[in-house]
Amino acid sequence: MTIMFNKCLMAGVIPLAIALSSTAFAQESTGKGEVEVLNWWTSGGEAKALGALKDQLADDGIGWQNMPVAGGAGTNAMAVLRSRITSNNPPTAAQVLGYDAQDWADRDALSSLDDVASAGNWDEVFPQPIQHFAKSDGHWIAAPFEIHSTNWVWANKSMMDELGIQQPGSWEEFMASMKKAQDAGHTGLAYGGQPWQDATVFENVVLATGGADFYRRAMIDLDPEALDSDTMIRSFDRFRELLQYKDDNSPGRDWNLATAMVINGDALYQIMGDWAKGEFLNAGLEPEQDFMCFRTPGTQDAVTFNSDLMIMFKNDNDQQQAMQRTMAEIIGSPEFQMTFSQLKGSVPARTDLLADKLDACAQRGYEQAKAAAESDTLMGSMAHGYAAPASVKNAVFDIVSSFVNSDMPSDVAAEQLAMVVQGARS
Ligand code: BGC
User: Fold this and answer.
1) 142: which of 108, 110, 111, 368 lies 20 to 30 Å off by Cα?
2) In what order do the strands lie in the sheet containing 378-380?
3) Is the CB of 308 within 6 Å of ligand 1?
4) Whether 299 and 238 share a structural domain
């Protein structure tokens, strides 16, 4: 399935379901011109956060044409974006992740945001790991919305209380707590069996097993000796151990439906980026009262991150250019960074804001992200386009998902991982 999908993309064919979903955009205009924004923010929490941008643009008299392409992590959205560009019909702006932003900049498709960035002092307020992806050749080419991180566990608090489960401090305690839930007739791990979700959970396990240095060597430096190593084999062993706590209906499940299992008391935990918190918040739940958040056991000393970037496509029309600048200005502003993250589940990408307006999970997350940026342990997420270019990422997805959906032994998986990554790089 994954392989077929990738082949479609390579051949430049957009699968029908995706093409159809892209036509389902909503149009709203205030008469002063409008922006068309391609994004994959279609869950309840995501749509609410995106609404904050639409509202703020409306305050500036700018209309909104939404172009949502459903599908977590943007896999489908990127296919639609490519087809729009190929047919010479780019949207005003698009939500993208790190390496994809760089790719569009290399193709000279993007408007420069240098004026807005210099007026807003972006060089000072956004941390280096974000600038690394939002700038190209020293020029700002993207406006960062936030910092998300992927090494979080979201937990049903009443189930923890009912079963006497304390926050697990180690991998062993983590497994034991899921076993307890399973023995009591619940699902231990809410799991969405889609390639990007498999990879999101897997990168957590790699970090928990090998630590920050190993994660960097394997996932970012793509060192073949780390990819095919005993530590990677052990990571796959642990991944297998974890997978026994998912339910039988996990294949193909969307991430927000997995989150709903934790919200509704059907499952104890979900391992997912903090956009999952946006779903809890959207359901009116309070962190640390109604649900718990903690770093995946064994990953407390590092943060694997991604950041949604808004890129603006080159345009000859003065009005479109002015609206692009306004949109970038809004996204980078202190007020918007705070409002957006309060809805989205993330933390602001700006490091100069007061954390006290954030919820309990995000307050910790914000300090952890800033500390990690200082100590060089704010590391790009492989599953979310911040560790390696799309070709490598997709190759990793293929092996990790094959492992999930078969009884592939761990040593074979590690060997194959090293092999496909090597192949994707050459
Ligand atoms: C994006 C998030 C989004 C999540 C699920 C991630 O790659 O950064 O903004 O909520 O995918 O679609």
Assistant:
1) 368
2) 148-149, 303-306, 378-380
3) yes
4) yes
The two beta strands, 309-312 and 139-140, are: unpaired
pTM: 0.93
Q: 10-residue block means of pLDDT along the chain (426 residues)?
A: 33 36 42 91 98 98 98 97 96 98 98 98 97 98 98 98 98 98 98 98 98 98 98 99 98 98 98 98 97 98 98 96 98 98 98 97 97 94 98 98 98 98 95
* Position 190, amino acid: A
> Residue 7 has what pLDDT?
31
Same domain? For 241 and 387 the reply is yes
Res 24: pLDDT: 38
Give the CATH number for residue 310.
Answer: 3.40.190.10
177 and 118 in a common domain? no
The pLDDT assigned to 256 comes to: 98
306 lines ligand 1 (CB under 6 A): yes
Q: Say how many Å lie between the CA of residue 97 and the centre of ligand 1.
A: 9
Best mutation site among 21, 39, 40 for ligand 1 pocket (most ligand atoms within 8 Å of CB): 40
Looking at the structure, tell me whether residues 57 and 132 fall in a common domain: yes
Residue type (1 letter), 69 = V
Nearest alpha carbon, ligand 1 atom 8: 308
Which residues sit opposite 312 in a β-bridge?
A: 93
**Which residue has the CA at smallest separation from atom 7 of ligand 1?**
73
Q: Is the Cβ atom of 40 under 6 angstroms away from ligand 1? A: yes
Q: Which ligand 1 atom is the nearest neighbour of the CA of 385? A: 7
**Number of other CB atoms surrounding residue 415 within 10 Å:** 16
pLDDT of residue 426: 85
163 strand-pairing partners: none
168 lines ligand 1 (CB under 6 A): no
pLDDT score of 31: 57
The domain boundary, picked from 352, 369, 386, lies at 369
CA distance 155 to 262: 7
**Ligand 1 within 6 A of 63 CB?**
no
In a shared domain, residues 171 and 91: no
CA-to-CA dists, residue 178 to 40, 75, 164, 343, angstroms: 31, 30, 12, 29
50 and 155 belong to one structural domain? no
| Whether 180 contacts 172, CB under 8 Å | no
Domain span holding position 78:
3-148+306-369
For the CA of 308, the closest atom of ligand 1 is 8
Ligand 1 pocket test target in 146, 270, 275, 279 with most atoms within 8 Å of CB: 275
